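testing teh design pipeline on a random one, pls ignore if ur not involved
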């Protein structure tokens, strides 16, 4: 069963990100420096933690890893595609990135080789150099929300 979610991503720099899921349920993932928060409104839960070693988190492997990643790049009628594979069995990585003519990602597919699970991310409506409100990286949640602390 596929679940489709949509929302907005705001990048201030490589250490500040706000990913707001708007549909079907409101959720917010907030990264500030090495601290993260994930608020799930439907489940009334706030998860907080630290990204202690970014090179060991799949999301950050592309940016911070010292590992050698195998990749291929193709062009065709379907657009430009960039395939990234990390074949080590203990931490496999399999990502396909579809780029538009400006080399911006429009679709990212992450495949878990161990479970076969696929996560598909779509990107559109890029806007650059937007003014960022002072409170963009603050997260206000109701007082009765359960807080779960994760240890990285």
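output:
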């Amino acid at each position: 069963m596929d679940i489709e979610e949509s929302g907005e991503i705001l990048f201030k720099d490589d250490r500040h990100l706000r990913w707001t899921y708007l549909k079907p349920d409101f959720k917010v993932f907030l990264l500030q420096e090495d601290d993260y928060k994930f608020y799930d409104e439907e489940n009334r839960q706030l998860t907080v933690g630290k990204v202690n070693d970014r090179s060991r988190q799949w999301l950050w492997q592309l940016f911070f890893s010292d590992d050698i990643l195998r990749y291929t790049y193709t062009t065709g009628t379907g657009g430009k595609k960039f395939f990234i594979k990390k074949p080590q069995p203990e931490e496999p990585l399999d990502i396909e990135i579809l780029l538009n003519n400006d080399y911006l990602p429009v679709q990212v597919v992450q495949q878990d080789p161990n479970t076969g699970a696929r996560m598909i991310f779509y990107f559109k409506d890029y806007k650059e150099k937007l003014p960022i409100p002072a409170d963009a990286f603050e997260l206000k949640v109701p007082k009765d929300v359960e807080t779960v602390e994760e240890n990285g």
